[in-house]
Design goal:
Helix content is about 45%, strand content about 15%. It contains 32 helices and 24 strands. The protein has a 6-stranded mixed sheet with strand order 1-11-10-9-12-13, sandwiched between helices. Helix 3 packs across helix 13. The longest helix is centred in the middle third of the chain and has 36 residues. The structure holds 6-O-phosphono-beta-D-glucopyranose and alpha-D-glucopyranose (2 copies). The site of 6-O-phosphono-beta-D-glucopyranose (BG6) has 16 residues, from loops. One of its GO terms (molecular function) is glucokinase activity. It catalyses: a D-hexose + ATP = a D-hexose 6-phosphate + ADP + H(+); D-glucose + ATP = D-glucose 6-phosphate + ADP + H(+); D-fructose + ATP = D-fructose 6-phosphate + ADP + H(+).
Length: about 900
């Protein structure tokens, strides 16, 4: 027994292990991990090249944008016909997609028929090929009794590189694999198909989308798995697609959201990038192919070439006497005699060796058992190299996605299809293992798309159809916000007429045109310390301004005005302001300084002098009682006086109990709040001017730029003021020529020359007018551009019917307009899956700060989504796109 073992050991030693000699012969095809990492890095560089606008034209890996922007979300539905051209089989299908069930639960039903393509058509004229395609389609519709009464949306899987400018248009870049059809390169394939369908006639179909097989595969798998962001084909050809951040896709405008990129990785190496990995067998395969020098990576990897690579290796080894005792058959010399199906059979578990023997015998060879082991091993090395190369490419894509998303670990699904992956017994396992070894930090799931691409193509079409109808409805809703040039001209004319009417004494105007008694803008020589109070913007502000020749220093403090004070009594409001002023003077340590104070009061006031202003009516969020028709300067003075009076009671009050304070009739109301009284101190103000915020703005800017003659506010409210010729201001005619008393006194006293006096007169020839343009439209003149959403916002405001222009444009109302539109779109089922949440029903959720964030172009949709989420509005990516659009348009409307 021992002797037998010894002999057989010696015998095998002498004979040499047949796999070893193959290993030696094919050492260049056995890639270890360092080489794979190197290839992966090279592919990453190629992807970058293909994505960049500058290098795309010269890039071997074309990275074609597909215009597929989202993976399915399960809500797709509909019935489609589908064409699948470019794989090993040409198929026509009917696909029915039911909503919300997914593929595994039977959400997609399909019927298909394979139509052989006569070989001559693969190198014939484009029209002939497409006539065959459309005739097959007609035959299918007929055979399956698909009614021609209604139009059928058609999904087209076309497994060749196309440059898309939209989903239903794609220019063929070049043919690959076994196609070499004439007259189509650079032409729109969808158009070619439509024309062929028209030529065939008798069909009612509409080609809605054309997609690459990789994209269709990703979509098919994505219907059940939301992590599926990569599509991979290892079939007759090989290719991969993935979801890329649009900001990285130079060839498509916009930088928000994602887009599927068809890498066309088959072309990797066409520029020599893989030359050091290419063997003599690869060169031979390439030289004998339809497209020498092209699709180098594909030729090392895909089903159309694997069998041929094996044949060339076997032939060469046989010729060298390393196989079959040097015997070579004619069959072995013949191109295409070993196919990928043979390779798969030779590597079959258990039966592989027998299959190998049968295959070789079929080729008129007479293989020994060692020959069979060796040839099987050749197959293994060739197909292993293929899965290794695919793993390297895939690792590059996955690490790019991981980096794009700034993740430490990535969870992702890859949808896979293709005859090699589906039929080769070891291929999937090997591929998965190597990918996981190259990328230990990624959790990669591979999902086989076992029923072909057409489901995915139908889903793309369904998404396109859903988005098209959604878009139409959203567009219709938003249409009234899009103002044409003509409409803008009309608004301009009405504004102008309103401004002119407002200057007249007779007749009414919705625009008040209030004289401000500011005759000149500063010239930068002003100096001194002033106290400035600013009421009517988002907050109340107290400021100390120190003008020192072209240089103003500013200290300020901001106080919020609670809603109940804005809308309480006038006395409470002005007491509150007096209290803020007191606090500010304390803060500045200037309680006893008697400073001149300017009061910016951002509401319409009738003025007869610079230091008096009668409030015409509240606007924006204010409606404190007993103020309209009163001089606001006096009201502020009185509030200060009240504090000073109450000061007398301060001491007593702090010593009284709260009940005693409340019941004591001599204690002024302000002092009844013990806490308030506890920090009262005496102060006085010399209010020298009351101005509107527009006027204040113009004055501050004019201090820097003497040309400034207009002040514009686009804030909580909106308004404008400008320097008007006094002669045009009819309202103040009676006052013209007699400026205020002080000035007359000064005029009398000073001994200025006539010229100087003329100059002064010239200076007094203009006066700043506070237009109060927010009131445009209060007489109905904007009714034709006011949308139902604006009406709703107006009705819910505290001053219905007033400030119509302001309500179309200013910060206080924009958020509400957006909310009304979103509510309407949601009620119509176009947003948030039709779910109207309590949050969405809550007035004021969209503050202007959110709007400006959402509108910012650089902000990714994911952030829009997160803002919506913060607001309790959970939405999909599509929802975010629509929300952003609503906001863009409402703001655009404003401008
Ligand atoms: C199929 C698709 O499932 O996979 C084809 O329907 C695609 O369109 C194919 O081209 C790729 O595999 P193969 O092996 O048929 O080229
Ligand atoms: C070829 C085609 C490509 C396709 C792939 C798989 O590489 O160029 O578009 O995806 O084959 O079918
Ligand atoms: C409102 C006020 C106006 C102010 C504007 C901007 O329109 O009526 O006086 O200028 O808001 O704050």
């Amino acid at each position: 027994m021992f002797a037998v073992h010894l002999v057989s050991f010696l015998f095998t030693k002498l004979q040499e292990d047949p796999t070893k000699k193959v290993d030696r012969f094919l050492y260049a095809m056995r890639l270890h991990d360092d080489q794979l990492k190197d290839i992966s890095a090279r592919f990453q560089a190629e992807m970058k090249k293909g994505l960049s606008a500058e290098s795309n034209a010269a890039a071997a890996v074309k990275m074609l944008p597909t215009h597929v922007r989202s993976t399915p979300d399960g809500t797709e539905k509909g019935q489609f016909v589908a064409l699948d051209l470019g794989g090993s089989k040409f198929k026509v299908l009917q696909v029915k997609v039911r909503e919300g069930m997914g593929i595994r639960r039977g959400g997609v039903e399909m019927e298909e028929k394979i139509y052989p393509i006569p070989k001559e058509l693969l190198s014939g004229r484009g029209t002939e090929l497409f006539d065959h395609v459309s005739e097959s389609l007609k035959d299918f519709l007929h055979e399956k009794n698909i009614s021609l009464e209604k139009k059928h949306p058609l999904a087209f899987t076309f497994s060749f590189p196309c440059e898309h400018s939209k989903l239903d248009q794609g220019l063929l870049v070049n043919w690959s694999k076994n196609y070499r059809v004439r007259g189509l390169q650079g032409k729109d394939v969808v158009k070619t198909l439509r024309e062929a369908i028209d030529r065939t006639g008798g069909m009612n179909v509409e080609v809605l989308a054309m997609v690459n097989d990789t994209v269709a595969t990703m979509m098919t798998c994505g219907f059940d798995d939301q992590y599926c962001d990569v599509g991979l084909i290892i079939g007759t050809g090989t290719n991969a697609c993935y979801m890329e951040g649009l900001r990285n896709v130079d060839l498509v405008e916009g930088d928000e959201g994602r887009m599927c990129i068809n890498t066309e990785w088959g072309g990797f190496g066409d520029d020599g990038a893989l030359n050091d990995y290419i063997t003599e067998f690869d060169r031979e395969v390439d030289a004998a192919s339809n497209n020498p020098g092209k699709q180098i990576f594909e030729k090392m990897v895909s089903g159309m070439y694997l069998g041929e690579l094996v044949r060339l290796v076997v032939l060469k080894m046989a010729k060298r006497g390393k196989l079959f005792d040097g015997q070579v058959s004619d069959a072995l010399r013949t191109t295409g005699k070993i196919t990928t199906a043979h390779v798969a059979a030779m590597e079959q578990y258990k039966t592989g060796l027998n299959n190998t023997r049968d295959i070789l015998t079929e080729l008129d060879l007479n293989p020994s058992p060692d020959d069979c082991v060796a040839v099987q091993h050749i197959s293994t090395i060739v197909s292993f190299r293929s899965s290794n190369l695919v793993a390297a490419g895939l690792a590059a894509i996955l690490s790019r996605i991981k980096r794009n998303r700034n993740l430490r670990t990535l969870r992702i699904t890859v949808g896979v299809d293709g005859t090699v992956y589906k039929t080769h017994p070891q291929y999937p396992k090997r591929l998965h293992k190597v990918v996981r070894r190259l990328l230990p930090e990624c959790h990669v799931r591979f999902v086989l798309s076992d029923s072909g691409s057409s489901k995915g193509a139908a889903l793309v079409t369904a998404v396109a159809q859903r988005l098209a109808s959604l878009r139409q409805q959203v567009d219709e809703t938003l249409c009234p916000f899009k103002l044409s040039q003509e409409q803008l001209q009309l608004v301009k004319a009405r504004m102008r007429a309103g401004l002119e009417a407002g200057l007249k004494t007779k007749g009414s105007s919705a625009i008040k045109m209030l004289p401000s008694y500011v005759y000149r803008t500063p010239d930068g020589t002003e100096h001194g310390k002033y106290l400035a109070l600013d009421l009517g913007g988002t907050n109340f502000r107290a400021m100390m301004v120190n003008f020192k020749r072209q240089n103003a220093r500013l200290y300020h403090k901001i106080y919020t005005i609670p809603l109940e004070i804005m809308q309480g009594t006038g006395e409470e409001l002005f007491d509150h302001i007096a209290q803020c002023v007191s606090d500010f003077l304390d803060y500045m340590g200037m309680k006893n300084a008697h400073l001149p104070a300017g009061f910016t009061f951002s509401f319409p006031c009738e003025q007869t002098a610079i230091d008096t202003g009668t409030l015409v009516s509240w606007t924006k969020g204010y409606k404190a009682t007993d103020c309209e028709g009163h001089d606001v300067v006096s009201m502020l003075r009185e509030a200060i006086k009240r504090r000073n009076v109450s000061q007398k009671f301060h001491k007593d009050v702090t010593e009284m109990s709260l009940d005693e304070v409340k019941n004591n009739a001599t204690v002024p109301p302000i002092c009844k709040q013990k806490t308030v009284c506890s920090y009262l101190q005496e102060f006085d103000l010399d209010i020298v001017a009351v101005v509107n915020d527009t006027v204040g703005t113009m004055m501050s800017c004019a201090y820097e730029d003497p040309q400034c003659e207009i002040g514009l506010i686009a804030g909580t409210g909106t308004n404008v003021c400008y320097m008007e010729e006094v002669k045009n201001i009819e309202k103040t005619k009676e006052l013209i020529g007699k400026p205020d008393k002080e000035e007359q006194e000064e005029d009398k006293q000073d001994d200025r020359t006539e010229r100087e006096k003329k100059e002064v007169d010239a200076e007094l020839s203009k006066m700043c007018i506070n237009t109060e343009w927010g009131g445009l439209g209060d007489d109905g003149s904007l009714d034709d551009i006011i949308t139902p959403y604006d009406m709703e916002v107006n009705q819910n405001s505290i001053n219905p019917g007033r400030q119509r222009f302001e309500k179309l444009t200013s910060g206080m109302y924009l958020g509400e307009i957006v909310r009304q539109v979103l509510l309407d779109l949601t009620r119509g089922g176009l947003l948030f899956r039709g779910h109207v949440t309590e949050t969405l029903k809550t007035p004021g959720i969209f503050e202007t700060k959110y709007l400006s964030q959402i509108e910012s172009d650089r902000l990714a949709l994911l952030q829009v989504r997160s803002i919506l989420q913060q607001l309790g509005l959970k939405g999909t990516c599509d929802d975010s796109i629509i929300v952003k659009e609503v906001e863009d348009l409402t703001l655009c409307h404003t401008v």
